[in-house]
């Protein structure tokens, strides 16, 4: 009886919140062809793409809506696929902080912790190891750039909610490229929209360290500096009529990072697929899938031309328990329904392209991804506690 009382309200909410997705007529282009495996060689660069909150249903609904039942999204063209288990150190259902820390550090932590372990120690991240080896690094997101996923690669805090502290740690991180939202955490308390409780102006602190600060697409595209801080919204970057797009930011990041002969590590997050899941909004999810998939194309195009770049794509968890059912009225539509407005424990997809991509096939724990990347990049001992 207790279980019935707990779940009946959720059942009725989800039934009343169903939405229909129209299946597009498939248009075949050269980009519909799946990419081949490439010969293994030394890896110079790594692009890690994270579609926050994305499960197979989100991918499939995006595919059906954007390219049709027989088409392929750019991410579906990647030749290697696998599956990831996502539990955190203290829960079978992870959040983005623990999920991203598993990737960045190769270690489990509690939900809410950013490269910060339950025993109070800090784990060293892939990005930090890349910086130590003279590589260039970058973080790109459509959320605040201080949000849980990007933060897990370049900051160490007990709570993901401490975005002010995360922004402060970024100043001395050495990361060459920051592109996303979140101006509110970088500006002093006397400026409109600030979420700080002090007078520090982190934008000025970045500029004193040689970064160019930009806040518009036009300024980003005109930037000549090899170090850039781009904050394009006070909070997350607006989903509708987004400027710049995730593809735009990814292009800029690659143009900055590729000049380093020692290579680069770049993390690109499609942040708001997760927000669509929390809101149970199918149209929003599909719009965000397109934005993310356009960025995937940028990454894959670069990797194909470069030949020394490993592209790995995954999620941190699934959000919403999204599923697709037949429409009762139209055979060319599907009915989307949601199980929850939070994360789920279902495994998520893993895709890879480039040298040694085959290493990412099969079932994996989320910690395996960071460990494999560190091994392929010859980063030495990993996982590793930060001194």
Q: What spatial order of strands do you see in the largest sheet? A: 6-7-5-4-8-2-9-14-3-15
Q: What number is the mean pLDDT?
A: 93
Sheet of most strands:
10 strands, mixed
Strand tally is: 15
Secondary structure tally, helices: 12
Distance between the termini: 52 Å
Secondary structural class: alpha/beta
- The geometry reads as globular
List the helices and strands in order.
Answer: HEEHEHHEHHEHEHEHEHHEEEEEEEH
Kindly estimate the percentage of residues that lie in beta strands according to DSSP. Answer: 15-25%
Low-confidence stretches: 1-16
Share of helical residues: 25-40%
Short recap of the structure:
With 387 residues, this protein is α/β, with parallel strands linked by helices. It contains 12 helices and 15 strands.
Question: What features would you describe in this structure?
Answer:
There is one protein chain. By secondary structure, the chain is α/β, with parallel strands linked by helices. It has 12 helices and 15 strands. The strands form 3 sheets. A 10-stranded mixed β-sheet has the order 6-7-5-4-8-2-9-14-3-15, sandwiched between helices. A 3-stranded antiparallel β-sheet has the order 1-12-11, with helices on one face. Helix 3 runs parallel beside helix 12. The chain is globular. The N terminus is likely disordered.
């Amino acid at each position: 009886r207790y279980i019935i009382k707990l779940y009946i309200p959720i059942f009725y909410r989800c039934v009343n919140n169903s939405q229909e997705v129209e299946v597009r007529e498939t248009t075949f282009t050269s980009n519909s062809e799946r990419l081949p495996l490439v010969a293994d060689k030394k890896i110079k660069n790594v692009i890690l793409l994270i579609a926050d909150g994305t499960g197979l249903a989100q991918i499939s609904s995006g595919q059906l809506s954007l390219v049709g039942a027989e088409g392929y999204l750019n991410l579906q063209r990647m030749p290697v696929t696998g599956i990831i288990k996502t539990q955190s150190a203290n829960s079978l259902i992870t959040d983005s902080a623990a999920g991203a820390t598993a990737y960045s550090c190769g270690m489990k932590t509690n939900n809410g912790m950013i490269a910060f372990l339950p025993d109070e120690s800090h784990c060293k991240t892939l990005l930090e190891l890349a910086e130590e080896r003279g590589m260039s690094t970058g973080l790109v997101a459509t959320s605040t750039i201080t949000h849980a996923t990007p933060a897990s690669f370049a900051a160490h805090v007990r709570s993901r909610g401490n975005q002010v502290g995360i922004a402060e740690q970024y100043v001395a991180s050495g990361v060459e490229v920051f592109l996303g939202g979140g101006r509110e955490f970088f500006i002093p308390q006397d400026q409109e929209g600030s979420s700080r409780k002090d007078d520090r102006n982190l934008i000025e602190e970045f500029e004193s360290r040689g970064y160019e600060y930009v806040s518009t697409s036009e300024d980003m595209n005109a930037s000549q500096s090899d170090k850039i801080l781009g904050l394009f919204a006070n909070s997350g970057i607006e989903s509708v009529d987004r400027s710049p797009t995730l593809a735009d930011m990814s292009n800029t990041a690659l143009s900055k990072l590729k000049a380093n002969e020692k290579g680069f590590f770049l993390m690109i997050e499609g942040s708001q697929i997760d927000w669509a899941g929390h809101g149970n909004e199918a149209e929003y999810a599909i719009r965000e899938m397109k934005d993310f998939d356009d960025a995937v194309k940028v990454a894959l195009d670069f990797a194909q031309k470069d030949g020394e770049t490993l592209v790995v794509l995954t999620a941190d968890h699934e959000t919403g328990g999204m599923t697709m059912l037949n429409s009762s009225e139209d055979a060319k539509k599907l009915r989307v329904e949601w199980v929850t407005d939070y994360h789920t424990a279902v495994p998520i997809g893993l895709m890879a392209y480039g040298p040694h991509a085959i290493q990412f096939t099969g079932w994996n724990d989320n910690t395996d991804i960071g460990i494999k990347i560190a091994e392929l990049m010859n980063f030495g001992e990993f996982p590793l506690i930060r001194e």
